[in-house]
Amino acid sequence: MVVGVPSPVTMVDEDMHVCEVPIFNNQISNESIPTSFCSTIPTLESLPILSTELPIHKSTKSLNNIDDLPFELLTGEEYIDHANDLTDGIIYLTSYRLFIFTNESSCSFINCPLRLIDLIEMKDNIYLYIQCKDMRSFRLTFFTTDKCTYWLRKLTELISIPINLEDLFAMKYALLKPNQERSLRDRFHNEFIRLQLDSYPWRLTEINRNYELCTSYPEFCVVPRTITDEEISEVAKFRSYRRFPTIVWRHSNGAVIARTSQPEVGWLFWRSKEDEKMIQAIINACHPTTADTLPRETGSNRLLILDARSYTAAIANRAKGGGFEYPPYYTDCDVQFMNLPNIHAIRKSAQMLRVAIANAAQSENWLSQLESTRWLHNLSALIGAASFVVANVHKHSRPVLVHCSDGWDRTPQITALAEIMLDSYYRTIEGFQILVQREWIAFGHKFGERCGHGVGANDPNERSPVFLQWLDCVYQLFIQYPIAFEFNEMFLLKLAMHTYTCLYGTFLCNTDYERTIAKLETRTLNCGNVFCNSCANYYKSIPSLNLTRPVRVCRDCFPKLDDINNHTTIEQTTKSASPMPIQNGCRQPNGTPNGSFNANGGQKVKG
């Protein structure tokens, strides 16, 4: 993640009760910590450590058997090859990773999953320059050109675009694993209940069951109760890729956040009465009392249509049959363009950032190079767009409809970021997983094409670190409001890594429809398994206002550690615990306390 200071943001923290362990806290003691509580804070031990400079240790170590590997093989991982004629140490190649071990005494290493590699180039005939999809890079220097060429060919073959899903490591990794608890879809439905979107004036439509209406949408969507399935079908015909307006979040004041794709108005400003009726139904449903019993004043509670594109880009899309909502057709609506860059601009920005980071040690103009990438500028613009949604929903009680062109890149960036600001539940580990599952995975962000690991994803123009950019925005919120999150930056780093590693099936394919056809839910593991499943039960046991017992790092997740903070505790505070109040009009608690801990790992490298 790039540390920067974006524009100020709005974070709604009403009735938010969280805790952390600041190093200056006078209540920290060295008492022993009971094992009844845990926290899933990932450690650097489980992350790929990529370094641009390695200590040079010439070694003649050879691999006699599988036990000589300096890391533990994962389930389904197979040893392929190794070489000890590098100037930097020894490299090991498996079906999942490239591992560079420099010296047993220093324990310096690079642990890089193969699918994390974006590009490999041969330089000066003796070294390989490896660029990763998370914008890090490193190089391997060989003694001979022949060896360098051999490893270039070997690695290039292993990171090539998969021909079928069986070529991805996630399939092998799940073969010998016990069946996991697959409750994510149930929690997805429970989320609608929590937000009170399962009752009047809303309803859960099954018009997309078996993905018959829209292959890039989830099977179940929330719509106004006054809109019939027949009308939804007509609305879908008017929207790009049939992605009709649907509700994703509701505030206690009645305002909602909805998402869709651009209307297909074309040059002649075609219109759809069903689409106009649905937008008006959303407005009425947000204020049912006013809509049903009293005449509503013109201009009050107007719906905001937030178009993530620039006005120029929206006009240009009309030539392709797209466009934006024509204001005279949509009464009580305002259209606002946010001027966010498209995937091509973000890809270029990320490439420039990767170059700037690689040259940072030798550059005297690091800050100017960083500015020229416009990465932080783009983060600030995205956070500003989400803050604009928050202000309208939270302060002005206005419903907001968000879309870009197709509704699967900039749209989830804005909606998911705004929901994190508005709803403390999404700042917990469980809630964050629900948010990613709904806004990104279920609503069809094209992970296969954007990350470059999809079957037949050969078009480089379709690649773009859209999800990585969003995670960086979440990180920017975290550094501004660290105690408002149950997780820390290590959680985000691990999630960013596994977006590309293909270790789990969560981020494979482009849509839920494709995942269902491929039966990924039963053939692969979910990314939620990165963290100990039992930890969620302990989070629910922590009171909302105070902690009645000390908290510790989960021993099921991480090995025994020798960190200086191993004995850190949080003492019981003065007041007794009290139940968490209902927030944001929800029937269930909207957030849990958090703890922030530090730990570093050792022993054999895992994962």
Brief overview, please?
With 607 residues, this protein is of the alpha+beta class. 31% of the residues lie in helices and 12% in strands.
Total of helices: 18
E-strand count: 14
Strand content: 5-15%
Helix content: 25-40%
Rg value: 25 Å
Shape estimate: elongated
Walk me through what this model shows:
α10 (375-395) packs across α11, α11 runs antiparallel to α12 (429-442) and α14 (466-480) runs antiparallel to α15 (489-501). 31% of the residues lie in helices and 12% in strands. The model is unreliable at 1-61, 290-294 and 536-603 (pLDDT under 50). It contains 18 helices and 14 strands. It starts with 78 loop residues before the first strand and ends in a 66-residue tail after the last helix. It has two domains: 45-160, Pleckstrin-homology domain (PH domain)/Phosphotyrosine-binding domain (PTB) (PH-domain like), CATH 2.30.29; 201-531, no CATH class. The chain has 607 residues and is of the alpha+beta class.
Q: Topology, please?
A:
Elements: E1 79-83, E2 90-94, E3 97-103, E4 108-113, E5 117-123, E6 127-132, E7 137-141, H1 145-158, H2 169-173, H3 184-194, E8 202-205, E9 221-224, H4 229-238, E10 246-250, E11 256-259, H5 273-286, H6 288-293, E12 303-307, H7 311-318, E13 333-337, H8 343-358, H9 366-373, H10 375-395, E14 400-403, H11 410-422, H12 429-442, H13 447-451, H14 466-480, H15 489-501, H16 512-518, H17 520-523, H18 535-541
Parallel strand pairs: 11-14, 12-13, 12-14
Antiparallel strand pairs: 1-2, 2-3, 3-4, 5-6, 6-7, 8-9, 10-11
